[in-house]
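Forum > Structural Biology > Help requests

Title: Can anyone predict the 3D structure of TetR/AcrR family transcriptional regulator?

Hi all, first post here. I have the sequence for TetR/AcrR family transcriptional regulator but no way to get a structure on my laptop. I'd be grateful if someone could post the structure tokens.
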Amino acid sequence: MLTKAERTKQFILETAAPIFNQKGISGANIDDVLAATKLTKGCLYGHFEGKEDLALQVVDFMLKTNGEKMLSTIGKGKTAKAKVFAFLDFYKDPLNTYLKGGCPIFNVAVESDDHFPAIKEKIADVIRRGQEIFIGVLKQGIKDREFSNELDPAVYAFKAVAAVEGAVIMCRSMNTAKPMAGLLKNLKAELESYAI
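Reply #1:
Sure, ran it for you. Structure tokens for TetR/AcrR family transcriptional regulator below:
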């Protein structure tokens, strides 16, 4: 059971996450968070040392939440193919992502590249772990004879994630989800071409 202070901090993180995801670390400010939470500066600073601390904790919250949602989605699949398709379908509507503003991993990765080395390293770890999980699912699919050993798990996993993440940005920029549907269909067909 969370204490009142822990619930307040959780509320601040949940409320600040879409602000930071949409405006970025540099673009979001304390006043945005105060307006959205309707809390006082004193209350906010009782939980966070300042904007930098808030930003770091919001990024951690977004990465943790995204990871939990992704693992829950993939975990529903009973086969390697079902798990991969669940991952791909997680991105089927790039205009209405679960966290307003697009994929938090990609958004934070782009902004942190040259400006926030500590956050960049967190993102790199998340991407590496995600790739390891994806590759592991595909290797299990080969082991279980769902896929032929012609499938290169590392190449497909990297290609699928890079394509989908790039497509989220492109679709959001063009304000259309239609290209994503075609991409997902193509990635699924490619994986199915390795079916035994």
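The chain has a mean pLDDT of 93. The first helix runs from residue 4 to 27.
Shout if anything looks off.
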